[in-house]
Design goal:
Helix content: over 70%
CATH class: Mainly Alpha
CATH topology: Tetracycline Repressor, domain 2
Largest sheet: none
Mean pLDDT: 87
Shape: globular
Radius of gyration: 17 Å
CATH architecture: Orthogonal Bundle
Order of helices and strands: HHHHHHHHH
Low-confidence stretches: none
Distance between the termini: 49 Å
């Protein structure tokens, strides 16, 4: 791996061990073996590196969920939502540090414009990707109504994640959430 990848791996490790807000640049360099100046060179700031690590972790998690879904598409968006949420909830235990870090990154967005920009880009991509997955179409084929669906499901995912972080035992299951969504229609 190059220094950039080493820094990302070190940041992910530190986020898992210390949390987003308690991780220092020196922690990351110690975990990665890179030098302190490399953070600025490759990412511009520690915060940008931490955000990149959080976003990269979410991309990895999303890829894992997508791979688990391959071959199980039914063409029924609600069934796809249920399977996606089941994968999301199943991975939550292993990815707890990523979820916590994402909440911390959201709080930082209020004060750091670059964090807000990065998260806005991630949300934009997520809306389209989620809609494409649920509608079983290519992301380029997602229209405005598909983006609205992606926004709704993204809101559900964020809400489920927060509920799970606060009280995993009381968080509704994927089938309960899908049932509740079905009640709306």
């Amino acid at each position: 791996m190059g220094q950039r990848q080493d820094l990302l791996a070190g940041a992910k490790q530190c986020i898992a061990e210390k949390g987003y807000s308690r991780t220092t640049a020196r922690d990351i360099t110690a975990a990665s073996g890179a030098n302190l100046a490399a953070i600025g060179y490759h990412f511009g700031s520690k915060e940008a590196l931490l955000n990149a690590a959080v976003l990269d972790s979410f991309d990895e998690w999303g890829t894992e969920i997508e791979q688990a879904r391959v071959g199980s598409q039914t063409g029924v968006p609600l069934a796809s939502l249920e399977r996606f949420l089941a994968g999301f909830l199943a991975g939550s235990v292993e990815r707890r540090a990523t979820l916590v870090a994402s909440v911390q990154a959201l709080a930082e967005a209020e004060f750091v414009p670059e964090v807000r920009r990065q998260l806005a880009e991630t949300y934009d991509t997520a809306r389209r990707s989620i809609a494409a997955m649920l509608l079983d179409v290519d992301p380029d084929e997602v229209d405005e109504s598909g983006l609205q669906l992606g926004s709704l499901v993204l809101a559900i995912i964020n809400g489920v994640a927060l509920q799970w972080l606060i009280d995993s035992e009381a968080t509704p299951s994927a089938s309960e959430i899908a049932g509740a969504v079905k009640m709306l229609t």
